[in-house]
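sry for the spam today, last one i promise. struct tokens for design, 94 residues
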């Protein structure tokens, strides 16, 4: 089932793959998620599960943190802010 609503996690993962030049195959290997599932998630054909979102974010050194907890060494990636006040960020310390 195709997802038509915006998804900040999916969009941030796709943007980070483009930004750092990492392939979906590499993300699959790093996260332990099949390449087919990674492709479905990034392409927006299915909604990503919380567990798999966490695995993909960790594989890309990304995390979801409340905006008020952003420190001076962290910057928000595009897209940044969710309705619940969470943001997808890249931890630049690592």
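last one done:
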């Amino acid at each position: 089932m195709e997802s038509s609503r915006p998804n900040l996690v999916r969009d941030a993962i796709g943007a980070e793959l483009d930004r750092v030049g990492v392939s979906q195959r590499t993300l699959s290997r790093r996260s332990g998620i099949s390449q087919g599932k990674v492709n479905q998630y990034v392409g927006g054909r299915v909604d990503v599960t919380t567990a798999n979102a966490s695995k993909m974010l960790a594989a890309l050194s990304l995390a979801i943190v409340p905006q008020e907890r952003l420190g001076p060494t962290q910057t928000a990636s595009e897209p940044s802010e969710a309705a619940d006040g969470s943001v997808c960020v890249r931890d630049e310390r690592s």
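The domain at 8-91 is CATH 1.10.260.40 (434 Repressor (Amino-terminal Domain)). ok im logging off now
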